[in-house]
Amino acid sequence: METQRYTIGKRDEEGFYPVTVDQTPAGTVHRRHGSWYATMPGHPVQRAADRHQAAAHLVTLIDQGKRPPSPLRPPSTHPPTGCAPP
Question: Do 52 and 66 meet the contact criterion of CB atoms below 8 Å apart?
Answer without folding.
Answer: no
